[in-house]
Hints:
The complex is a heterodimer of chains A (333) and B (506).
Chain A: H1 2-25, E1 33-35, E2 38-40, H2 42-65, H3 73-90, H4 95-118, H5 124-142, E3 148-149, H6 155-161, E4 163-164, E5 167-168, H7 169-186, H8 190-199, H9 201-206, H10 211-237, E6 239-240, H11 249-259, H12 271-290, E7 292-293, E8 296-297, H13 303-318, H14 321-332
Antiparallel strand pairs in A: 1-2, 3-6, 4-5, 7-8
Helix pairs in contact in A: 1-12, 2-7, 2-8, 2-10, 2-11, 2-12, 3-4, 3-5, 3-10, 4-5, 4-10, 6-10, 8-10, 11-12, 12-13
Chain B: E1 2-8, E2 11-17, E3 25-30, H1 37-44, E4 52-57, E5 60-62, H2 67-72, E6 75-78, H3 90-95, E7 101-102, E8 105-106, H4 108-121, H5 137-149, E9 155-159, H6 167-182, E10 186-190, H7 194-200, E11 203-208, E12 211-217, H8 223-231, E13 257-265, E14 273-278, E15 282-286, H9 293-301, E16 308-313, E17 316-317, H10 323-328, E18 331-334, H11 338-341, H12 349-361, H13 369-382, H14 399-411, E19 417-421, H15 429-444, E20 448-452, H16 456-462, E21 465-470, E22 473-479, H17 485-493, H18 500-505
Parallel strand pairs in B: 3-10, 3-11, 6-9, 9-10, 15-20, 15-21, 18-19, 19-20
Antiparallel strand pairs in B: 1-2, 1-4, 4-5, 7-8, 11-12, 13-14, 13-16, 16-17, 21-22
Helix pairs in contact in B: 4-5, 5-6, 8-17, 12-13, 12-14
Amino acid sequence: MLDAIKKLIWPIAALVFLLVINAISNPALFSLKIVDGQLTGSLVDILDRAAPVLLISLGMTLVIATAGIDLSVGSVMSISGAVAAVLLIQTDWALPYVLIVSLLICTMAGIWNGILIAYIGIQPIVATLILMVAGRGIAQLVSDGQIITIPEGSTFAFIGSGCFLGLPVTITISVIAIITTITIVRYTSLGLFIEAIGGNEKASYYSGLNVRTIRIFVYTFTAFCAGIAGIIYAADITAADSNNAGLYLELDAILAVVIGGTSLMGGRFNIVGTIIGVLIIQTLNTTILMTQVGGHNIPAEWNLIIKSIVVLIVCLLQSNILAHLKFSRRAIA
Amino acid sequence: MHGIVKTFPGVRALDTVQFKLRHGEVHSLMGENGAGKSTLIKVLTGVYRHEEGTILLNGKPISPRTPLEAQEQGISTVYQEVNLFPELSVAENIFIGREPKKFGLINWRKIIKKAREAMLRINIDIDVTLPARSYSVAIQQMITIARSIDFDAKILVLDEPTSSLDTAEVSQLFNVIRCLRDQGFGIVFVSHFLDQVYEISDRISVLRNGQFIGEYPISELPRMKLISKMIGKDALNTSDLTQHHKSRKNISNNQKIVLNGEHIGRRNSATDIDINIRKGEVVGLAGLLGSGRTEVANLLFGIDSIETGKITVNDKEVKSHSPRSAIKNKIAYTPENRKDAGIIPDLSIRENIILALQAHKGWIQPIRRNEQQRLSKHFIKALNIATTDAEKPISQLSGGNQQKVILARWLAIQPELLMLDEPTRGIDIGAKAEIEKLIADLCQKGMALLFISSELEEIVRDSHRVIVLKDRKKVGEISGDEIQLDRIMKIIASDSKKPVKKLINA
């Protein structure tokens, strides 16, 4: 437990640091107002917008803990959005059925990934790269290459922009996803099994773990999360945009997991760390957009560069490089 | 090589060792695990630097600092694993890194011509423009040999070159070796296959525990003598050492057979093994390295599924072969390589201990936290694991204590049969003794044990019955008072071409 907290010190510090910068340069970020019974403000906005990345990152944490990786999550998001939109517009199915079918298709995509990796033995990065390319193609086929718009004000749109308990619905979904994930991994032995496989697959197999099934599970779980993320995204913009839904989001998710202290080599994972990682990335996005330098906004084209610099700094801090430097200097003195 | 000393932190790996290689001879370097063979080779080939002593090559002192330097001085090595680029052509493999150039461009015609010459020099005529992977392992090995001798080598070191070759391929390799010997090469040959050593060598040098034991022409060193020199026990004097253990060497044949394997085997693994283990019995698997000990355990535990024969556990035939089903049958297995297949370094001692039990119970029924703590506390005490805290990562423990944690993992599932592959390797004397005592206690309580060790004395001390393996076949089985060092050594040393029965009655 103490170790877990120690590992989180730098990510938390980075998050606090970002918020402090905001507090100085742009106090408006912290203002919260209640409009029409809903809490609004930049902080709420950060949490709202973080939902898709957060959902994906929860799954990605488990995948990375098994020493795997899933590049297909962005494409799976576009599939779920496209399927849901097409079903809504072209059939008279009730919303629950639409959601269930969309998520079922995403779940199958995850099983596909898992089988390629666990049974056929393709490296995770290659196996999921296949679906990363094919998935967006499938979504484009489903939506006939068009952006399908969904009527605003429908129940579906409520998922993306509605309000529940005074907060955006997306926040409720995020909280439920976090609690579910933590329950699944920490109140069963799945978490232990995932960490064991990531730590030493051979030893896990010799100890009687069902390595293949667990691998399939983590990819399926991730694809399911990506499915929900895709629905949130489509509901938020009230359209299924197969070309852009979830684009590059797999990279944000991997970054969030790494910032949160889960090693790409597999083994120990840290869900709380991942959540902090997501918040850092999302706060950073908002900060860059809102920070004023000399009365002007930072040009949007700087966004990606600044983001990568901050991520690099957090990773360096975490890898103890600085601690080692300090230590060796002291040793010389 | 004269008076070579090499130390690693805490060990003197080579203690004033000498080694003399003549032109035109095949010289085998023999010794058990940890005797210093590979260290000596690594000093010779520039991987390690020696601290004392001299290496003379044709009378001139040399001191290679890197394998490349050694190669330039004429010392080449061919390792056990084939180090080729499978997708590159044979010719490219031979000339990689030193391609002949013309006007700064690679001269392909010359490469192909010279590569063919290099292969012909060892009497191999193949198409050198095909990728290396299109040839058998044996040919690939010869390509590596051709590559090394092309460096104008004078000395060729072959480290376990035959371990992945079949019989026909071995004789092909031996032809190449003889051909090189006749060209005046000095060849250092390292192998665990005794028959092969006797077939190819002119001379044998024996190392034991980092010390030079002696150099002998092959005709003056019969197998028995070689083995006793390698193991360091005079075969004739060992019988009385083990007498005091004989009291518990009688397991009645009425005891239930826990596991029975008939004619089990698999390609590239052990073949045609008969084995049964009774309740409360310790069965030892003896044999030199590479004799198939681990392979037999892997077959029994389902890591490799059998292709021939059948395995029954408690009179029921085992149909599906996997560690999971073996564990369901209450079979446990601590593998030989603790780091590679035993410990999960990131996880705590507690998590490492409960892992197999938890896997057996399934993911949906987690063992309660306080039950986990009770289990780990119990085993830390029972096995005397030196740690202050069960929450420490297992990687922070010493080798012996890691081994005990792995043992605890298996004892936690309360197995009926426990298979231990080299449980005492790489751990200190104290921990060794504790593990041997544990073996005795467990079988007293009725557990069946399969005990694999390359230290024959341990096998002799602890087993009720010993199965002797050689070249991945069973070559003998002895029990009770017959279990003696010299007896086992005699079985191992006997020429494997003679029928097995005669050996046992001899």
